[in-house]
Design goal:
It is built from 6 helices and 12 strands. The chain has 248 residues and is of the alpha/beta class.
């Protein structure tokens, strides 16, 4: 870390070295471009292998002394490539099937215009969500009733086949104070929704300063990795500690 105005070459070199030490980031397989602007902001650009790699890269870059900000141009390489239309249809179906979002108005952007998919008005309305997809990047606009609704919509977006990134611009109205218990509750709901987690009741979730710790028992390594991925997909989660045991 630097104590004076950062030197471009040395700062980029140091940040790159820090990224190379992070086990979730594989710069050899997924090269990341790092630049320092004249305004002392770091620009990270490229594809990474997972949501965890993206979040860790941004956190590492943002923690550098005297760096005034991070410009996020990182995207997650999808396991399968999908067209924007197919992605929008898939996400729309997921949002419509989520019981917690059944009282939300849902609109989608197709061919440049918003189309109503589900309408929910009156005092019982729990949100108005506008979904768009461009170049594999999902953007969520509008408002929802709670942080749990916001986090759930964001995770459903990340689950969409072909998704490269999620821009979650959903407002929470009325504003709600975030806290660790809210994160834990939201993740528990997500694990219950995830068809790849057959026994979510066996997973214990703890959150401290937005660091999620997973403990308990799962049946396979795939399930263990999926539970961790779900945690990383949550809005505002900075780190995930996976202590899940794999057993029969």
């Amino acid at each position: 870390m630097q104590n004076a105005r950062p030197n471009s070459h040395s700062t980029v070199k140091s940040v790159r070295a820090a990224l190379e030490r992070e086990s979730r980031i594989d710069l050899h397989r997924w090269p990341v471009s790092i630049e320092l602007t004249a305004d002392d902001a770091l620009v990270l650009e490229g594809e990474v292998g997972s949501v965890a790699a993206k979040k860790r890269a941004l956190e590492i870059a943002g923690s550098w002394l005297n760096v005034r900000g991070v410009v996020d141009r990182l995207h997650v390489a999808p396991s399968e490539r999908k067209g924007d239309g197919a992605m929008l249809d898939s996400l729309t179906a997921s949002l419509l099937s989520a019981a917690e979002l059944k009282n939300c108005t849902l609109r989608v952007v197709k061919k440049g215009s918003a189309r109503m998919v589900q309408e929910s008005g009156g005092e019982d309305s729990s949100g108005d969500i506008l979904v768009s997809v461009k170049a594999g990047i999902v953007t969520l606009d509008g408002w929802v009733l709670s942080l749990s609704h916001k986090r759930m919509a964001g995770v459903l977006a990340w689950w969409t086949p072909g998704c490269r990134d999620v821009v979650d611009c959903l407002e929470v109205l009325p504003p709600e104070q975030d806290n660790d218990d809210e994160v834990s509750d939201a993740l528990s709901l997500v694990l219950e929704m995830d068809p790849m987690i057959p026994h979510p009741e066996q997973i214990h979730v703890q959150t401290h300063n937005y660091v999620v710790t997973l403990e308990g028992l799962v049946t396979t390594e795939t399930e263990k990795a999926r539970a961790e991925q779900d945690a990383w997909c949550l809005f505002a989660v900075d780190k995930v500690v996976n202590r899940l045991a794999v057993g029969g």
